Amino acid sequence: MATDAMSPKITVELLRQLRQAMRNGKCIAEPIQAYIIPSGDAHQSEYIAPCDCRREFICGFNGSAGTAIVTEQHAALWTDGRYFLQASQQMDNNWTLMKMGLKETLSQEDWLISVLPENSKVGVDPWIIAADQWKNMSKALSSAGHSLVAVQANLIDAIWEDRPARPSTKLIALGLKYTGLTWQDKITALRGKMAERKISWFVVTALDEIAWLFNLRGSDIEYNPVFFAYAVIGISSIKLFVDSKRLLDAAVRQHLELDSPSKPDLTVQCFPYESVFSELNAVCAALAPKDKMWICDKASCALTQVIPKAHRAAIPYTPLCLAKAVKNPTEIQGMKMAHIKDAVALCELFAWLEKEIPKGTVTEISAADKAEELRSQQKDFVGLSFPTISSVGPNGAIIHYRPLPETNRTLSLNEVYLIDSGAQYRDGTTDVTRTVHFGTPSDYEKECFTYVLKGHIAVSAAVFPNGTKGHLLDSFARAALWDSGLDYLHGTGHGVGCFLNVHEGPCGISYKTFADEPLEAGMIVSDEPGYYEDGSFGIRLENVVLVVPAKTKYNYRNRGSLTFEPLTLVPIQLKMINTDLLTQKERDWVNDYHRKCLETIGAEMERQGRKEALDWLILETQPIV
Amino acid sequence: MATDAMSPKITVELLRQLRQAMRNGKCIAEPIQAYIIPSGDAHQSEYIAPCDCRREFICGFNGSAGTAIVTEQHAALWTDGRYFLQASQQMDNNWTLMKMGLKETLSQEDWLISVLPENSKVGVDPWIIAADQWKNMSKALSSAGHSLVAVQANLIDAIWEDRPARPSTKLIALGLKYTGLTWQDKITALRGKMAERKISWFVVTALDEIAWLFNLRGSDIEYNPVFFAYAVIGISSIKLFVDSKRLLDAAVRQHLELDSPSKPDLTVQCFPYESVFSELNAVCAALAPKDKMWICDKASCALTQVIPKAHRAAIPYTPLCLAKAVKNPTEIQGMKMAHIKDAVALCELFAWLEKEIPKGTVTEISAADKAEELRSQQKDFVGLSFPTISSVGPNGAIIHYRPLPETNRTLSLNEVYLIDSGAQYRDGTTDVTRTVHFGTPSDYEKECFTYVLKGHIAVSAAVFPNGTKGHLLDSFARAALWDSGLDYLHGTGHGVGCFLNVHEGPCGISYKTFADEPLEAGMIVSDEPGYYEDGSFGIRLENVVLVVPAKTKYNYRNRGSLTFEPLTLVPIQLKMINTDLLTQKERDWVNDYHRKCLETIGAEMERQGRKEALDWLILETQPIV
User: Comparing A503-517, B227-241, B420-434, B571-585, which segment has the lowest mean pLDDT?
Assistant: First the structure.
């Protein structure tokens, strides 16, 4: 019943239509020789609403990262190591897969220069390309005699007959109990930062920043509790651009004090979502000569270019992005609670799987559904935080695999099972990966798992000075794999939001160094090394960890040190570990971790009366001797 | 006799004169409100000739890195952690030390913006500021309403009465025995790279690149066997700009085939050094519309701006820089031989010190002199590769300390001794640091030394995939220190030239990630973690290591793996090690290393009949049990 291949999307006709639109048509002033279809929406979101899945529409590949480029003769898709296998399976042979991160792979710019005829025009929708990407691409193309042009009407939308409408879901107002700070407090703190830097306006375009700032959540984008909006914050005014129907809700009106603002400078002025372009234009027209306006250089090119250069202060990440990343005590407490509830559900799943798998009836999809069902029984559950990666054997090697009916494998006693899953609770967001075997793992599987575990521990137990950037920790996760000639082609960790996006900036742990802010106490990141053997199995071990101060024997130049505290408390399967490969320190770490799982999750299971899961937990947290 | 303080340079009068020159004078068209004095020369060299020591002249600080800025009211110097102590001792209180790398330290741009009156002009000599630095500085100043202006006549030169003349030393032509490739081979390979990228001209400004390309050496700059020159390489022409007196030498004429060129496109056309500006202008005037010219973005702003933007292809490092970094088999063999000879000399020094120190007559300076004397006895010795850092006790904490009569301490049985030294031999360049104690080190000194040793081994024994950048290895060197709350404020390693500069790009091992090219087999870098306790002692352990292929159990995606082979073969003092803190793997590494020292250096000592040194070596390479 299960097959190993996803079927590719047939794109011959779509490409014909797109190329026709590129040549003339009502859409563009003059023909373009190439059209770029980025992955994001007008907010440069990583996860996007169905109406914004233009890159998937044109090429079939539905991973979270990738850019398609179509020329008269070629069609190519760039994506990273997580998605090489998946992309090659989802695209037909009209498409060339460009594997990013490999030395021999041309960049988009170099590829365009190599295939385009002289003096070509390359088109892109300025709303869905970030300003910094526009700048780099435009510079590279110009230097080779081509030009990048903004195509106002999106050419994919023009050929996409049944394109869904933009969602406008109900907004949820979060109280102090969840947020720790009122939106008024956050606006005031933000204005303090603006004043420090002599900034008079700040254009907020990232959906999670707007949700965090206003203590509002939505469900416009699956898995991400955000809503389509823009905000323009001045020193004494607040402009929110959002579908006006959403503001009819009494709770939302009260939360934003729309009908009775307490202070003039904390009065929210609401405008329709679409009017951001014209309103920002109006604000810019009225700027004093010295006024400066912050906008993230990852904001859309379209909106960025509204701001005259003399007034534009482009920043690589915004003060909201940083403020949101450093969780306050209420948020930390909420994240801890969310992870405890989440661990109860996941332990229950594993206890259930152990019982059910021998019957041969559990599949990747049914296991994922069961995980969701168990999570949904927990308090304040809202939904999943990303599509569950539930993968057996070779499917585990597809790093961002999502089981589909045509790929669905049955869980068995013979293959490794990898489940990477998480949920949104009103008090926090979770993201956890465990790799387990329900029969007897091979020595090679255990060896690889143990290297991954050693890397996981090396990061989790690392002590490092205040001010250290996450990318300096990435190699700790790889050293044990590297020693044996192994590696994994993805970063080691990402920031995690608090009842917000499961991936957030500006910190992370990766060999890539872009937009990497120093780690600070209160930040929350994932620690998730892995190893993937194409066609055979995948291993990943992921905890969400909190950055905390570390006690050290000495304190060089009074800088202070940091380390990580795991928030995820789900046992690591001992059966998968070759304990001979662990040092005593690593064994102690595993035993300490399991003791903490048993104490904390065990207590919650007792409180919830989940006896079977507790029995399972007790067995799974036996110390290594 | 020894004192602990260097005396600061008195700068009141010089600053008065400089500020006068900034205000009006014959030097500039209109007054400037600030003047930037970078560290480098017109070739952006790290080590510079006396005539180019303008920054030292104005502020007194003579470290290898630092930028001075003088305004009407302020004078400030930016330097990095290696030099904080030294700079604070060498500058008088007219100067503010700006400690780079600390969070609270303003960048040069931000500082200028904070102190300058509105619409200020900031001047700089365009020949000694790199094009990329000019661009960044200019952009930052413009965004705050100021402007960066090129001041053609150097204002320091204008007030520097007894400024030395530019040196023009004898050139040495290196044969194939040392270089492995003729200069004609190197030009041909370079033109191949230019053709690949459709580049018709390449302006070479870095002195070590010119020396390497032409297989010539000079001694214009102390410690660096280079000579003042520029080169402009076309697809069929070679223009060398060098003081014409140097080309009267018959050996040089023959080497460059000046009188009987073998091929037209391998004919070297010689021009006076100073004519590079006008000749490059002439070349640029004759460019075809599609011609592109390579120039490094670290070349001087003055020369970069000669090339019209449409023809300019600025690159972060040049193909010569990369070709030079990957040593050929002849160069590797030469580097190995140089390190063997160097180790003989250094072992002799330590044997001598052990005997002499109890007499109380050996000082930092006399020890350094003895080291030079012993090195000079070795075959093909040319000179030192940098000023010897010979430092006792608290002087060891001054990271780039150089003993002066007024700071000179006596070596004793009570203090740690750190010696960082190296030499130029015709077959290679060395750079080695050992930290030793001739009495009984304290437990704390041993503990710190052992953490540094663990870091040194972690890098030296690291196995990592082909394509890994050096900065990904930096944290391995720090992990043991970090665990105890310690750290060091410098990078872990730098590229090392082959009878060339002891510091060279484009690879290295540092937490900083700029211009960091992937490590390749054949590259040579240093591995030199340290620990410094201000006012007390300094520890550093440095080997020069060669990047070599590593054999691994598996080979993920056929990428292949790399590791390091130490070229430096000088024992690590066992007395300084707390062996309880070492893992078994680390103990094995030390024993293997010492076995190799004994075999290789011992054999050479026997050949040279250096009996006392051999006896010392045998004792110092006893295995740890």
Answer: A503-517
Is it the case that residue A3 has pLDDT exceeding 50?
A: no
Cβ of residue B583 closer than 8 Å to a chain A Cβ? yes
pTM, 2 dp: 0.92
Distance of residue B580 Cα from the nearest chain A Cα, in angstroms:
15
Give A487's contacts in chain B (Cβ within 8 Å): 465, 556, 559
Tell me the per-residue pLDDT of A476-488, one tens digit each, with 9 for 90 and over.
999 999 999 999 9
Mind listing the pLDDT tens digit for each residue in B554-591?
999 999 999 999 999 999 999 999 999 999 999 999 99
- Give the side-chain half-sphere CA count within 13 A for A257: 15
Per residue, the 3-state secondary structure of B111-164, as one string, reads HHHHHCCCCCEEEECCCCCEHHHHHHHHHHHHHCCCEEEECCCCHHHHHCCCCC
User: What b/e readout covers B489-518, taking b as 16+ CB neighbours within 10 angstroms?
Assistant: bbbbbbbbbbbbbbbbbbbbbbbebebbbb
Q: Which residues contact B225 (CB under 8 A, 6 or more apart)?
A: B172, B211, B217, B218, B219, B382, B383, B424, B499, B500
HEC string of B350-375?
HHHHHHHHHHCCCEHHHHHHHHHHHH
Q: At what angle do helices B443-460 and B474-483 cross, to 10 degrees?
A: 150
Q: What is the pLDDT of residues B323-381, one digit of tens each?
A: 999 999 999 999 999 999 999 999 999 999 999 999 999 999 999 999 999 999 999 99
Closest residue of A to B511, CA-based? A472
- What value, to the nearest 5°, has the Cα angle with vertex A183 and ends A181 and A184? 100
Chain B residues touching A561 at Cβ < 8 A: 482, 485
Answer yes or no: is pLDDT of B5 > 60.
no
What are the angstrom distances between the C-alpha of B563 and each of A475, A581, B528, B541, B545? 14, 21, 16, 18, 9
Alpha-carbon distances, residue B576 vs B31, B197, B276 (angstroms) = 58, 53, 54
Put simply, the answer to whether A484 touches B553 (Cβ < 8 Å) is yes
* Residue A368 identity: A
Residue B54, pLDDT > 50, answer yes
The partner residue sitting opposite A465, judged by closest CB among B462, B471, B482, is B482
B22/B18 Cα distance (integer angstroms): 6
Phi, psi at residue A59, to the nearest 5°? -120, -15
Query: HEC profile for A45-64?
Result: CCCCCHHHCHHHHHHCCCCC
Contact A476 B475 (CB under 8 A): yes
Run of H or E including A458? helix A443-460
HSE-CB at A560 with a 13 A cutoff on CA atoms is 9
Contact criterion met (CB below 8 Å) for A392 and A437: no
Among positive and negative, which fits the CA dihedral A18, A20, A25, A31?
A: positive
Between β-strands B201-204 and B293-296, what pairing exists: parallel, antiparallel or unpaired? Answer: parallel
Q: How far is CA B604 from CA A575, B35, B342, B344, B412, in A?
A: 54, 54, 11, 7, 30
Contact between A82 and A490 (Cβ < 8 Å) = yes
The whole-angstrom separation of Cα A560 and Cα A465 is: 6
CB-nearest partner of B554 from A484, A513, A559: A484
CB contact under 8 A, A554 and B473: no
Residues 6+ apart with CB under 8 A from A309: none
3-state SS class at A535: coil
- In chain A, residues with a C-beta closer than 8 Å to the C-beta of B482 are 462-465, 561
B555 touches chain A (CB under 8 A): yes
B7 DSSP 8-state letter = P
Q: Angle at the Cα of B19 (from B119 to B38), degrees rounded to 5?
A: 80
What is the complex's ipTM, to 2 decimals?
Answer: 0.91
| Residues found in chain B | 625
Q: In a 3-state reduction of DSSP, which class is residue A506? A: strand
CB–CB contacts below 8 A, A to B: 72
